[in-house]
Amino acid sequence: MTRNLWLWMAVLAVSLVGCGGPDATAMVGVDDGVDDVETVEGELTSTSRAATWLPMQEGNRWTFTSATSARTVTLTDVGDGMALLSGLFAHPVWVGTASENSTTLLMWNGAKWVPFVRFGYARTAWILGEGRCTTYTARRSGTGVLVSTPAQDFADTRVISFEQKPDPVAFCTPPAFTELSFAPRVGLVGFKTGRGERFTLASASVNGNALPSVAVAARVTLDQARYTSKPNTIACITTPCPGNAETAVAKVRFEVTNTSSQAQVFRFTSGCQFDVEALTAGGRVVGRLSERRACTFAMTTLRLEPGKSVGYDADFALEDSQGLQLDGEFTLRAFLTSSSGAMGTPPSASAPVSVRVVSL
Asked: How many other C-beta atoms lie within 10 A of the C-beta of residue 104?
């Protein structure tokens, strides 16, 4: 950031010191350096840049809905690695990064720049703020969690949780949020308020791209909604054991349609152009089609002309990555495995599935 902007921000401190919590005042007292030069082994990845998880361009806008209301988060006055963030806190706050490769999103707390979200910390928690009602423990609570929204399904997400640590005798008002969910190249796709209200992304305009995408539509259908598997009942004393288990197989149909007036091109690094995965109710992936099939390493391309569709079919055995039969409520998510697509996220669609393991 330029020297003049830093001086100007110091003057601005008086006007922002009343922003509230995780509000800006909750961050006072946390300053372990301007940048987040994190060197803890195993904590960082090459995809941890803050700008990847919160794209900072003038006019970026995210609209969220809950069961009862709607919220819009915007970025304005973008420049010199910082922007004015409105709609998430009670009042607008300044956020930014200290360098292009920074993995920490900083926030101006009214007196200084402090770490807000550390996208590079996979396991290590950090403390925000000080005081009776303005101390928080923050940590990444989810990696690669499926976040389903009205705008789109997001699988490669990072969920950051904020736990308020009040004084035992204090009566604290709920914070602005307790959980933030980010998707790469899209930004914030969901959050949970201190009062328990959960907001999910309804639409967005990020770096000139719109969600939901009007260019490509995706749909997944199953041959059934409920399946039954039978467990193995043969007790073996030798190996290999023949077994008599019968694992249910879901027939998955995944269709992608070009709904725009221009051809859409998708490029793949293998002959397998789509994948299917099973996820728990909490969004944890327990099984993938790609783990059970071989794909050629040839580069392939899919070109969809306006109004045209392409369909993919797969038999998905309802078992996890270790071959154990699934039992309960799950989601089957199908998606193109391309490196391109709407806002960098390939088209995807999901369908609920119920499977029960019933003894003979």
From this structure: 28
